[in-house]
Write a structure and sequence with these properties.
By secondary structure, this protein is α/β, with parallel strands linked by helices. Helices cover 52% and strands 14% of the residues. The chain has helices at 7-16, 35-46, 51-67, 75-90, 97-108, 118-121; strands spanning 2-5, 30-34, 70-71, 111-115, 129-131. It has a five-stranded parallel beta sheet. It is globular.
Length: 136
């Protein structure tokens, strides 16, 4: 069991200027991120509108990568992703492409997703979600 952090957790932390205290979720096990979260964070670096902001964001992302293990998109995750995609598409309940990868990664690794994107993630069968802001 573990805790998969959605990209918006890091955006919240960066914007608030303070690190998030994960101790309240310690009972869920180790903290992880999906490889797609790494990509989303790096996109934010490339979108920076100044060299100073780019440098700050880059340092922020590298700090995360130095502390939080990354779970890869592999064949096992791809199989779960494909099944989720088909299920949600048939139901007319599709979620964002990156969120679907995060959800599949979390399911394969028995992780709970910590996010503020509850409306999307709650559509995924079998996925447990915890709100970052609202008490769990």
């Amino acid at each position: 069991m573990g805790l998969m952090l959605d990209t918006n957790v890091f955006i919240y932390s960066e914007r608030s200027g303070s690190p998030i205290d994960f101790s309240q979720w310690k009972k869920h096990g180790d903290v992880y991120i999906s490889a797609v979260t790494v990509s989303e964070l790096l996109v934010g670096v490339h979108y920076a509108n100044s060299e100073a902001r780019k440098a700050r964001r880059s340092a922020f992302v590298e700090s995360i990568l130095g502390k939080v293990p990354v779970l890869d998109f592999n064949t096992e995750v791809a199989r779960v992703h494909a099944e989720l995609y088909a299920t949600l598409a048939k139901q007319g309940q599709m979620i964002g492409a990156h969120d679907l990868i995060i959800a599949a990664t979390a399911l394969v690794h028995s992780c709970i997703v910590l996010s503020e994107n509850i409306n999307e993630f709650e559509r995924v069968p079998g996925l447990e979600i915890i709100s970052l802001i609202k008490p769990s």
